[in-house]
Amino acid sequence: MHRAPVVVGEESVLASLRRMARELGFSQIGVADIDLASAEPGLQAWLQQGFHGSMGYMARHGVRRARPAELVPGTVRVITARMDYLPRALTEGWQAVEFERLARPHTATVSLYARGRDYHKVLRARLQTLAERLAQQLGPFGHRVFTDSAPVLEVELATRSGIGWRGKHTLVLSREAGSMFFLGEIYTDLALPLTEPVDAHCGSCRACIDVCPTQAILGERRLDARRCISYLTIEHDGPIPVELRPLMGNRIYGCDDCQLVCPWNKYAQRASLPDFDTREAFDAPTLLALWAWSEADFLQYTEGSAIRRIGHERWRRNLAVALGNAWRETGNAAFAQALVAARDGSSALVREHIDWAVAQASLAHYPPG
Predict the structure, then answer these.
(1) What is the DSSP string of 102-124?
(2) Is the pLDDT of residue 121 over 90?
(3) Are 302 and 116 in contact (CB under 8 A)?
């Protein structure tokens, strides 16, 4: 986008944009300015402390995340979008159901957002369609769409445009929708009217900080990704730190604890799209059933899912840790047998986690002397 920005000052355009967005399954639309200079010091401090862990791309992009016009030249506004993702069939009291799942060692827990179709695919396609429909109304304009796919300060843009406020767990919170939603952006050269930010409403509550299994939330809006189970099970591609493995429980892909305990998620909205309905394979899976998957099974059951991107090896690594935790807690020899039987055919990374799991369970149930 290199031409002069198109000034769009009519609020009716924003109303039309919101109407088209709702038709495409989006729940809320905002418009942010591109001056994010005030966010740069915090981003730099976070990176300097190494809180990004092995996500090297975070450091490589650096403050470019806070400079939208450097990422996409010509950008003067960012359209922000919220899409709710709770599965449509989810029952009332779903938070309690999820905590019960976490308390059953033999059951595998996959983050709610990943139980359906890959959100990257869903949002990106619908954001592009939204931009095309807007162009039909206003004429051609420069734009690029993003969904967790580029150096974009998604939360910063969402909060500045009124989608919600940054909660103490660093996620965006909304009084109408809690935090169970995806974010997407359209970088554009349209000078659309800005939408106003909203006040924060966390007050003195620190439920998310206290519930974190690994204490990854160091303080208000301060997260050490290196301790976050979502990071460890999804982003991190090496061995999981030994001291954190027992704290992961049966969480094999992501972690929802800080959202499950948040009072605002009593207002979380069900998805309007069937894409986020829970797939049968992830409805109530057991660790042993998932451990029995071959790589071909993994690719089949995760086709079109966000889970596939971690690959079969990391999937097995995560399962090995959960199986070790389950054996330690229950003493059920079936977990040990499954781990040992798979050892010789596993990669070095998975073998190391199998060995840890076997040793931990043996020490727990068969102490020396």
Answers:
(1) HT-TTB-EE-GGGSSS-HHHHHH
(2) yes
(3) no
Tell me how far apart the alpha carbons of residues 141 and 147 are, in angstroms, rounded to a whole number. Answer: 20
DSSP H helices in 139-225: 154-160, 207-211
Q: Which residues are catalytic?
A: 148
Mean of per-residue pLDDT scores for the chain: 92
Q: How confident is the model at residue 281 (pLDDT cuts 50, 70, 90)?
A: very high
pTM of the model: 0.92
Enumerate the domain spans of the chain. Answer: 6-285, 286-369
Three-state DSSP state, 210: helix
CA atoms within 13 A on the CB side of 230: 19
- What are 354's two structure tokens? 């199998």
Nearest to 272 by CA among 80, 116, 92, 96: 116
Place of tokens 């030994």: 242
Structure token digits, residue 33: 């300015």
Token representation of residue 208: 């998310």
Q: pLDDT at residue 102 above 60?
A: yes
pLDDT, position 63: 73
Contact at 8 Å (CB) between 315 and 285?
A: no
Lowest mean pLDDT among 44-53, 189-198, 226-235: 44-53
Q: How many residues are listed for the chain in this entry?
A: 369
